[in-house]
């Protein structure tokens, strides 16, 4: 079970807007509501893996949440089993390519991922949006890890007051390899809950 949870971790950092538009007709199902964190899932087109949405509020600022999301070197402070995180190319302060591995216990192979990340501001909704999409062919594959081919995610950060932010995180991801998709779906709720709780505790403790 630990291995499967690790694979779900990759999506925490990774839906582009066109995907969301295609999928908007499908309804969300609330799967977990605990400690002010709601986890939803819904069917996704062209795959049996479910899309996930996490909603919570954090007593901090949008800038601090954004800084945590893009602070690649400190991912281990709120996510488990992330190794070798690094920026491959910084195009600007609002666009870059990052790399990291997800460490898995023997005999399962590690996974690795390259994410193309962009940051934008929606003036209509007063929302900062951080989007990450897997770019599996950006660099040569690591022979010691399985490359993640599907990982699409977005963070929508809306400042509700000067010290309170509504966070909506959507994701769709597959660890690849030989793990059946129905098995992945069994473990896609608990890990996002723990990760977002860790992020909230980290930010509210500073």
Would you mind describing this structure in some detail?
Residues 15-22 have low confidence and may be disordered. The protein has five helices and ten strands, in the order ααβββαβββββββαα. Strands 1, 2, 3, 4, 5, 6, 7, 8, 9 and 10 form a ten-stranded mixed β-sheet that branches. β4 and β5 form a beta hairpin. It has helices at residues 2-9, 17-23, 62-70, 181-185, 190-204; strands at 29-34, 37-44, 47-58, 82-92, 95-102, 110-122, 127-134, 145-147, 150-161, 164-174. The protein is globular and about 45 Å long. α1 (2-9) crosses α5 (190-204). The protein has a single domain, classed as START domain (Alpha-D-Glucose-1,6-Bisphosphate, Chain A, domain 4). The chain is 21% helix and 45% strand. It has 206 residues and is of the alpha+beta class.
The total tally of domains equals 1
Distance between the termini: 32 Å
Q: Name the beta content range.
A: 35-45%
Using the CA coordinates, give the radius of gyration. 16 Å
Shape summary: globular
Biggest sheet features: 10 strands, mixed
What is the CATH homology-level superfamily?
Answer: START domain
Number of helices, where a helix is a run of at least 4 consecutive DSSP H or I residues: 5
Mean pLDDT equals 83
Helix-strand topology string: HHEEEHEEEEEEEHH
- CATH topology, which one? Alpha-D-Glucose-1,6-Bisphosphate, Chain A, domain 4
Strand segment count: 10
- The secondary-structure class comes to alpha+beta
Contiguous runs where pLDDT drops below 50 for at least 5 residues? 15-22
CATH architecture: 2-Layer Sandwich
What is the CATH class?
Alpha Beta
Helicity level: 10-25%
């Amino acid at each position: 079970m630990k291995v499967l949870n690790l694979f779900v971790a990759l999506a925490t950092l990774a839906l582009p807007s066109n995907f969301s538009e295609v999928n908007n007709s499908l309804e969300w199902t609330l799967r977990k509501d605990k400690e002010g964190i709601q986890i939803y899932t819904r069917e996704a087109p062209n795959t049996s893996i479910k899309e996930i949405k996490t909603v919570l509020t954090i007593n901090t600022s949008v800038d601090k949440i954004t800084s945590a999301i893009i602070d690649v070197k400190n991912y281990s402070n709120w996510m488990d089993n992330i190794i070798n995180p690094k920026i491959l190319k910084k195009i600007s302060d609002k666009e870059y390519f990052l790399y990291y591995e997800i460490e898995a216990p023997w005999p399962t192979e590690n996974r690795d991922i390259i994410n193309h990340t962009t940051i934008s501001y929606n003036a209509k909704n007063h929302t900062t949006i951080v989007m990450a999409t897997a770019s599996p062919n950006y660099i040569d594959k690591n022979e010691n890890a399985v490359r993640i081919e599907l990982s699409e995610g977005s963070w929508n950060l809306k400042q509700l007051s000067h010290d309170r932010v509504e966070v909506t995180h959507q994701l769709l991801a597959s660890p690849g390899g030989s793990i059946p998709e129905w098995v992945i779906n069994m473990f896609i709720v608990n890990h996002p809950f723990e990760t977002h709780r860790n992020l909230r505790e980290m930010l509210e403790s500073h």
